[in-house]
Amino acid sequence: MSKKILVLNTGGTIAMSVDDSEGVKPLDDQAVGKILPFLTRYADVTMKNVLHLPSPHMTPELMNFLRQQIEAELAHDSCDGVVITHGTDTLEETAYFLDLTLSHTVPIVVTGAMRSSNELGADGPVNLISSVRTAADPGSVDKGVLVVFNDEIHAACHVTKTHTSNVATFQSPQYGPIGTVSKKHVQYHHAPLVREHYSISHADANVPLIKAVAGMDPSWIRFLIEQPIDGLVVEAFGLGNLPPAIIPTLKQVLNKGIPIVLVSRCYNGQVQDVYDYEGGGRQLKEMGIVFSNGLNGQKARLKLIVALQQSRDAKTLQKWFDK
C-alpha cells in the first residue's frame, strides 16, 4: 500500500517564476502543484497551500501556525509523512523550530529550491520528489525534522544555508548530511543522538540577536536595556569571547532578569569558558550567561524563544542549551 504523504506549501522560490523583467516573483501559485503527477509513483500525495510567502516574510508566529497545521493533520492520522515546501532564506529556522516543537515520530521533511520554477535547471521538482521519497521511507521515522536538498538529507538541528545561489547551499558544518537520496534508495548513515521537545502555545517572545565585531561600541546595544526584550542572543568571537567595552551593558541586561545566550560567530565548534581575561569566556560564564552547544545565532534565538515558555532560570536554560 502506498504511503500517504501530505505536502504543505508555504511559498518561496520553489513557487516563484521569472517575469519579463528577469525578476523572480511569487507569480505562480500552481508551480508546486504542477509537479504532483510525478510524485504519484512514490506515494499517495495530497497537497495543501498553507501560506504563499517569500521566506524573508516568515516569522516565529507563522512557524507556530505551521506547527499547529501539522499537529491538526497528524491528529487525524491522515498521513504517514509531511513534506513542507519553503523559501530557502529562513528554511533552516522553520525546520529547527518544528524540530523543537513537534513531538511526532512521523517523518517531517522541509525542502525548497534555489532556482525558480521556469528557470533552466530548476531544482524544485527533483527536491520535492526526493523529499516525498524520504518522507515515505521507513528509515525516516523518528529522526526529527529533516531538510532534503540536492539529494542530501540533513538534520534540522545541524543544517544551514551556506551559499547565496548554489543549489548545494544546504550543508551541515561539522556533521555532514545524515543520509542521501539515490535513484533507487534512501540511505541513512547516522542521525542525531538527542531529540528535544518543548511544548508551546505561542511564539511571540522578543529575542534580539547581536553579532560581536572588533571595536564594538557599547552604545550599539545599550538601548536594549530600555527595550521590552525577553532574552538576548550574542554571537561572540571564536571560543566565546567579547569586547570588554560591552560587558557592563550585558551585566545590566542580566540584572534585569533577562537571559543571555552566547554562541560563536564561527560556523564550526562551540563556545566554552576557557579564556580568563576581561570579556573572556570564563568571565561571561561567571556572569550567568548561558553557553550554547554549537548552535548558530538564528537557531539559538529560536530555541530561546521556545525555551522561555518553560523557564527563565539560567541554570535550567543552560541544561537545555547543553543538549
Automatic annotation (TrEMBL):
Pfam families recorded: Asparaginase, Asparaginase_C
GO BP terms, alphabetized: asparagine metabolic process
Annotated positions binding substrate: S55, T88, D89
Catalytic center residues: T13, T88
Reactions performed catalytically: L-asparagine + H2O = L-aspartate + NH4(+)
Alphabetically ordered keywords of this record: Hydrolase
Record field: transmembrane: none
GO molecular function: asparaginase activity
Name of protein: asparaginase
Annotated organism of origin: Brevibacillus invocatus
